[in-house]
Each structure stands twice: as C-alpha cells, then as structure tokens.
Amino acid sequence: MNKQALIKDMILKIQKASIKDFNVMEVCGTHTYAISKLGIRNIIEQKINLMSGPGCPVCVTSETYINSAIELLQQPNVILTTFGDMMKVKGSKENLTEQREKGKDIRVVYSPLDSIKLAEENSDKEIVFLAVGFETTAPLIALAVKTAKAKALKNVSFLIGMKRMEPILHHILSDAHHNIQGLICPGHVAVIKGEEYFKFITEQYNIPAVIAGFEAIDIIGALLFLIKQQDKDKKSFKNLYKDCVKPYGNEKANQLMDEMFTYCESEWRGIGRIKASGFSLRENYKNYDAAVKFGIKSGINTVKACVCSEILLGKKPPSKCELFGKSCTPESPVGPCMVSAEGACSIFYKYKGSEKYE
C-alpha cells in the first residue's frame, strides 16, 4: 500500500470509529501549523477535537521577561540580539519593535552563536542575547555560553528565559478538569530528550500519548493510535518517530545542558510561576547571566483581555477570544499567540478560510 492509500485508509478508520469529540492536545506549535496547513481538522471534525498546547516558546514568554529586555536597553552601549519572532511580543507597555523604532540597537540573529561573533567585533559594546526556547533550543544556547567562557569574552551575556516541557505538562494534566483524552508529544523536544522523557504522561495519568513526525501520514497515524486507546483500561504510549527520536534522545545535547544549567521556577505568560520549569545558569557561568550582571529584577505581570493562557492550556480555541481577528491580528497582535508563526492564534488566523472554529 502506497503512502496516499495508507493515509486514506487511516482516515476512513478514524471516520468510522465509534467516537465523537475525542479531545486530543497537540503540544508542539509545528504540529499545530501542519494540522492547519494540511486541513486535518476538517477531515476529522465531529470525531476528534484538536486542542493546541503550550509548545510555542514565544507564546509562553512572560511580560516580565520582555520588560527586563527593555530595561536592559536603557543601559549604555547595549546591543540586544534576538530571534525574529520575539520582536512583536509585548511587555506591559511596549515591544522590541517599538524600542528599535526609538533608536535602540536590537538585532535579529539566526543563532545565539551569532552573538559571540558580534561581541568579538564590538569590544566596546555589551551584547545581550534573549535566550528563549524549550529543550530544543537550550543545547545551542548552552554551547554559546560555553564558547563565550572559552574565549574569555567579558562583553556578552544571556537573558535566560528558557522553559522545560515536562513541568508544564504535569501542570496541565494534574488539573482535574483538563478533559484531555490523548496527547501528541512535541516532536522537536522529543528528538533532544527522547521518548523516555514523555512516558510519565501514560504512566502517571493513564492518558494515551504518542510521539509523531510532522507529515500527514505521521499525524493521522498518531490520531488513529490515540483513538484506538479509548476502550482500554490501561492506556499506552508509542513512539512513531523512531527515525529521529531515540529512547534517551541526543546524549551529547543532554550532557551539555546538564553541564551548563540547573532548574528553577519560571513564569509562564498568563499561567503563572511553575516550579522547576525553567533553566538557570550554574554558578560557574553566572557572570554570563544578564539579569545578574545588570541587576535586573522581575516585575509583576499584568492581566490582558486576550485569553492566550487558556488557549495554551487547551481550554479554549482562538475563536473564543473576543479580540481574535478584530483588535488582535498578526499585523497588530495583542497577545503572543498571534505573534509567533507557531502560535495557535496566528495559525488559525492564517488558515481561517479552511479551519473549523467552533
């Protein structure tokens, strides 16, 4: 059976399944994008209700983090470096795009290692990289910090805002009202951390979970696996992405993270502070922590009218936000879920002509 025939066969099995509104959370923003681009929601509607999870690092970046970045820009001779999708994420009042329009030196880079090169070329400037991401990005940021120390660079630092996936999933699944019946694990994080990292979902919460790739055959296959678990008392976990995801992930990447980072409490935008959900530089690398170096203090998050937090927790679809598609659009985003290309609101807005919203 060729690939297209196999996909059609799996779709037919889903459509014939004796289920209705089976709730599945896809955690990864790349999965959300693929599901929407491929029109999978429409194919499985009335059978499976797909809910987006907190797998977009930009979307979970707190206002206080953006405020800290803006505070750093008030320091003399600071050049802020960042990934491009951070530019429109608002703090309490402004975003980085607005700061750059005021003349602040903010540069979009493609890798944290670009900040090392910039520091070498600008010895009279302080280079600060906005270190945001999940375990997928953390190894590269760890390498950049390690490289900075090896080169004895004094004018580069990192504003640490990285998040860990396991604690946020515990936070979601320990809620008695979560209503999640199946879970597609974040594929990119799984490549780094391995399949063992996610087995707690089934072992502790008895919720079926699957690791999958990002093509139609991967996602449809994952959904079929999950609905087959519905009548089983003891649910199962499965890795369908074995070409890329090994039992314990990328050994070298994990060793590097362990060498450079420890865990700390971290603020998730609209969700709150979650224990051991963030990364912090170990003591022998603390002089590369921008918050320590410049004495940046965490502030207090304000409450916005958008419902990004509920979208990230799988409690509401983007259409249930009063601002969606009205005052909140990709051109003028209110919340971070409309900013990032992997944000649920941005994806739903882009594919609104072919998406099921209610």
The fraction of residues in strands falls at 15-25%
The chain-level mean pLDDT equals 92
Shape: globular
Number of helices: 15
Share in helix: 25-40%
How would you spell out the order of helices and strands?
Answer: HEHHEHEHEHEHEHEHHEHEHEEHHH
The number of strands is 11
Q: What is the end-to-end distance?
A: 35 Å
Strand order of the largest sheet: 2-1-7-8-9
**Biggest beta sheet summary:** 5 strands, parallel
Structural class: alpha/beta
Q: Radius of gyration, Cα only, in angstroms? A: 21 Å
Spans of at least 5 consecutive residues with low confidence: 353-358
Brief account:
With 358 residues, this protein is α/β, with parallel strands linked by helices. Helices cover 35% and strands 17% of the residues. The protein is built from 15 helices and 11 strands.
Describe the structure.
The protein has 358 residues and is of the alpha/beta class. It contains 15 helices and 11 strands. A 5-stranded parallel β-sheet has the order 2-1-7-8-9. α1 runs parallel beside α11 and α7 packs across α12. The radius of gyration is 21 Å and the shape is globular. It starts with a helix and ends in an 8-residue tail after the last helix.
